[in-house]
Write a structure and sequence with these properties.
The complex is a heterodimer of chains A (460) and B (372). By secondary structure, chain A is an alpha/beta fold. Chain A contains 13 helices and 24 strands. Helices cover 28% and strands 29% of the residues of chain B. In chain B, the strands form six sheets. In chain B, strands 1, 2, 8, 9, 10, 11, 21 and 22 form an eight-stranded mixed sheet that branches. In chain B, helix 1 packs parallel to helix 7 and helix 1 runs parallel beside helix 10. The chains are: A alpha/beta (460), B alpha+beta (372). The structure holds flavin-adenine dinucleotide (FAD) (2 copies).
């Protein structure tokens, strides 16, 4: 009889690390794969080894203790997992993952599979968004945390979501001038969401504290704005926004913007998971039960990769998914612990709804995107070209629109422009974003060097 | 039934064959209804390599292929778009003297068909195609062959047909089809019933299901050519490249991306296929060897499609042997994109005249014994 296959976890963020920890506790030796050189995922990303050194309190602020706990969890189990950092998973096919590390490809078959692939920034284009000096919120934070540098000397923050205020504060603390915070959400929305947020008073307090702290330091905070344009020739010079009837302009040399996050679901798609449209995330997400089980037996999804719920939820979901994997493999699990996790996760779901109400996606933004604005940078597709295939009735579905216009066909495979393309096509057709389908994933999910060579089998 | 349509001709399948048949039938004045399960041109016709090539085809396909060549030359007039069609030339490489001998023999055999093949070898080859260096001893150039963007061409045929009055029903699978007196009846769920005097079976790799409904089982196998495309690169290649004896093929599109093909993907289910990992890695290696210009590039996307293959790799085109006014056109075995529009035209002639001016004998369905 052949040995059962090892469990495999993709993603060493809070979700993946907690999942690995729970599997190790049950006596298994999971494979843990991450593209990054060090564990921690997006929020608890660690600076490169031997790079600049800043204390954790400076890097992670109020989250330092949690970051430290997650990093330590990985350190503790390190010799009991098959940890593979700097390794991209570029395909999932017939019960095995395809990896790329240092230009060498390899294949790992999986038994139970836990996808903890996290999320990236969600963006919509606006005039000037392709100017050098415009970054995503997450990207701006990565620059600070990972590379130890700021995206500019005087930075404007634009968009919505908790990261908007968080990153602005982090920049201010790092000694960067913050030209202003421009939130697309009207203040009334945030007030309405308060009751729901009270379910998680700590997070709520943190959020309110951030806004208060920014104001205290003289940073102008504007609500209910819409972007007009980033100005500048070859480099950001100013940001112009509309606020009711007024126009506000601020001088700045960089803009950080983002409209929340979008889940990385390509591997789940390649693995054959069923998807459904999630109106809250305005995205198609893998169907999951409360423990993270998908429609594919043996495959669980944990953390932001299955829907945006934040880092604390990711830790809980990672552990819960691991328990589900153990349960499904017929191994004993601590039922009380599983029930406790379920209760905590149920509370997170309520908080997530409140958070979405507090930072709603600006649904009218896409309609204001001018036709000549670049939508898909990789393939040079403008908003008008995409709208055109919708308006002329040539494409009623996003993959058709992709085939006809090339939107999402380039290097990023729609990771950057996909959300915007869906909004624009739906807008052109006069339907909701859930009615135009989802971009199908194709391998490789990230570019694969032609020169990559298959790993040499070790001779026994 | 929500909708009922009566028409002269019903077409099952809106690939390049069904779409062009609809267009030519409308030009002849027939009323046409085209039913497509997916979107028109979304299957093999929209995802193929994009090679618009006559060179290398079996001689019996060349008359059709020549007619297709003329149609491709009229794309802007027919479709209102050139769909990135370029007569770049198709160069078939010989990597040995024996292969060069085969190319010379093909040139001689196909002499009467007007391909204008040119054999180029040795120093002349290296001077003319410096980008291909010394990786071939020579090649055969078909100067007016070329390539096009399948994602644009194939849907455009169906759209042009619709613009000329064909009724197009997408997302409309033909679930049941039978003969009722002198009419065919096609049904899609409870949404649509079409009654027509003539039925065209252009359902690609799924055509054997339609044929089977008329007691005409055929040996058709689904296979999945493997494709990959790189990020855009500086232009180094104009011609569409094939290799004698098979293996890898490639073309550089106007944006600079290099599209390469070789090997096979696998079926997820009867309707969908995926590239296969070992085939992808082999293709990357072979392509980098043939085109060193891409050795440092990245592959940004791989894909495949579902294509119907016959045992002798020639298509089935022509009247059914069991059912009057039923015509088949399928089984293009990996090479139906270029000849597709001429097959559509031949089908239109069959409908109008009962015969086509293109010789179709080699493609008769009865060359295969009825499979039990
Ligand atoms: C740039 C960025 C900054 C953020 N900053 C904050 C913040 O400051 N505060 C906050 O509360 N929230 C922040 N968030 C949100 C927060 O990251 C998430 O809520 C949390 O990290 C989710 O944890 P996770 O384990 O689900 O995923 P992640 O932490 O995102 O971890 C996923 C991991 O999977 C890896 N991965 C994904 N795909 C592959 C693949 N194909 N092959 C190999 N590895 C792969 C990634 O490298 C990553 O390390 C940020 C998000 C982003 C995108
Ligand atoms: C990856 C790949 C690369 C290729 N490269 C080349 C090349 O370079 N050059 C070349 O000449 N050829 C090439 N070919 C072959 C070429 O693409 C096909 O031969 C050609 O497109 C066939 O056209 P078609 O219209 O018969 O089939 P399809 O395009 O498959 O159209 C058939 C249509 O019928 C529909 N259908 C099926 N059943 C039903 C039903 N019951 N009801 C309603 N609709 C139905 C399908 O959805 C489909 O859209 C390639 C093929 C593939 C897959």
């Amino acid at each position: 009889m052949s040995r059962p296959l090892s469990p495999v976890i993709v993603g060493a963020g809070p979700a993946g690390i907690r999942a690995a920890e729970a599997l190790v506790a049950a006596g298994l030796r999971p494979v843990l794969i991450d593209e990054a050189a060090r564990g921690g995922g997006q929020i608890y990303r660690q600076p490169p080894d031997g790079g600049f050194s800043r204390p954790k309190t400076a890097l992670y602020g109020t989250e330092a203790a949690k970051a430290d706990a997650v990093h330590r969890a990985l350190d503790r189990i390190r010799d009991r997992v098959d940890y593979r950092p700097r390794t991209l998973v570029w395909n999932c096919e017939s019960g095995a993952l395809d990896l790329l590390r240092d230009g060498v490809t390899d294949t790992v078959p999986y038994g139970p599979l836990i996808l903890a692939t996290g999320a990236t920034d969600r963006v919509l284009p606006f005039p000037g968004w392709t100017l050098p000096g415009v970054f995503t919120l997450g990207g701006s934070q990565v620059a600070l945390k990972f590379q130890g540098c700021a995206i500019g000397r005087r930075v404007a923050f634009l968009g919505t979501g908790p990261l908007l205020y968080l990153v602005a504060c982090q920049y201010l603390k790092a000694g960067v001038e913050v030209a202003g915070v421009f939130d697309t959400t009207p203040q009334s929305a945030q007030a309405r969401a308060l009751p729901g947020m009270l379910r998680d008073p700590v997070t709520l307090a943190k959020g309110l504290a951030l806004v208060g702290w920014l104001r205290l330091h003289g940073v102008p905070v504007h609500h209910g704005i819409r972007p007009i344009a980033v100005e500048g020739e070859g480099r950001v010079r100013a940001l112009r926004v509309r606020h009711r009837a007024d126009e506000i302009a601020v001088d700045c040399d960089a803009v950080a913007f983002g409209l929340g996050l979008r889940s990385e679901t390509q591997l789940a798609d390649l693995a054959g998971c069923a998807f459904r449209f999630d109106p809250m995330d305005r995205a198609w997400l893998p169907v999951r039960d409360a423990a993270g089980r998908t429609s594919v037996p043996g495959l669980c999804i944990a953390g932001d990769g299955g829907g945006i719920a934040g880092a604390d939820a990711a830790e809980l979901a990672g552990e819960r998914a691991a328990l589900a994997a153990l349960e499904d493999a017929g191994l004993p699990v601590d039922a009380a612990r599983a029930a406790w996790l379920d209760r905590r996760l149920a509370r997170v779901a309520a908080f997530r709804r409140a958070l979405n109400a507090a930072f709603p996606f600006p649904q009218d933004w896409a309609a204001t995107i001018p036709d000549d604005l670049m939508l898909c940078r990789c393939e040079g597709v403008s908003a008008g070209i995409l709208r055109g295939v919708g308006q002329r009735g040539e494409a009623r579905e996003i993959n058709r629109a992709k085939a006809l216009t090339r939107v999402g066909m380039g290097r990023c495979q729609g990771r950057v422009c996909g959300a915007a393309a869906v909004e624009l096509l739906a807008g052109a057709l006069g339907v909701g974003p859930g009615e135009v389908g989802r971009l199908r994933a194709q391998p490789p999910i990230k570019p694969l060097p032609i020169a990559a060579t298959p790993v040499q089998e070790a001779t026994p | 039934m929500t909708e009922r349509i009566h028409c002269d001709v019903a077409i099952v399948g809106g690939g390049i064959v069904g779409g062009s048949a609809a267009l030519f039938l409308r030009q002849m004045g027939f009323s046409v209804t085209l039913m497509e399960r997916d979107w028109c041109g979304a299957k093999a016709s929209g995802v193929n390599f994009g090679g618009v090539r006559r060179q290398g085809r079996p001689l019996e396909q060349l008359p059709l292929s020549q007619r297709a060549h003329a149609i491709w030359g009229r794309l802007p007039e027919l479709l209102g778009t050139d769909a990135e069609y370029i007569r770049s030339g198709h160069l078939k490489l010989a990597r040995s003297d024996a292969d060069l001998g085969s190319l010379i023999a093909y040139k001689e055999r196909s002499a009467g068909f007007g391909l204008d093949l040119e054999i180029i070898a040795g120093d002349a080859f290296r001077r003319r195609f410096p980008a291909l260096g010394d990786r071939a001893v020579g090649g055969s150039l078909c100067p007016e062959d070329g390539h096009a963007n399948p994602r644009l061409v194939s849907p455009a045929f169906a759209r042009a047909a619709a613009a000329r009055g064909a009724i197009l029903r997408e997302q409309t699978p033909v679930d049941r089809v039978w003969r009722d007196g002198d009419r065919f009846v096609l049904v899609s769920g409870d949404a649509l019933e079409v009654r027509a005097r003539v039925l065209l079976n252009t359902a690609g790799a799924w055509s054997h299901r339609i044929a089977a409904a008329f007691d005409e089982p055929v040996p058709l196998e689904s296979l999945h050519p493997n494709m990959a495309v790189t990020e855009p690169l500086p232009r180094f290649l104009d011609v569409n490249i094939g290799v004698e004896g098979g293996g890898v093929y490639g073309r550089q599109v106007p944006r600079g991306n290099m599209v390469v093909g070789g090997g096979r993907g696998f079926a997820l289910d009867p309707d969908r296929a995926r590239p296969q990992r070992d085939a992808v890695l082999t293709l990357m290696r072979d392509a980098a060897e043939l085109f060193p210009q891409i050795a440092k590039a990245y592959v940004i996307r791989c894909w495949t499609g579902v294509e119907g293959y016959t045992p002798d790799r020639n298509p089935i085109i022509g009247p059914s042997r069991t059912t009057p006014n039923l015509f088949h056109a399928f089984g293009f075995s990996g090479a139906g994109f270029q000849i597709g529009p001429a097959v559509g035209e031949a089908l239109a002639e069959l409908v109008r005249d009962g015969r086509s001016t293109a010789p179709l004998d080699a493609f008769r369905i009865d060359r295969f014994p009825p499979t039990p």
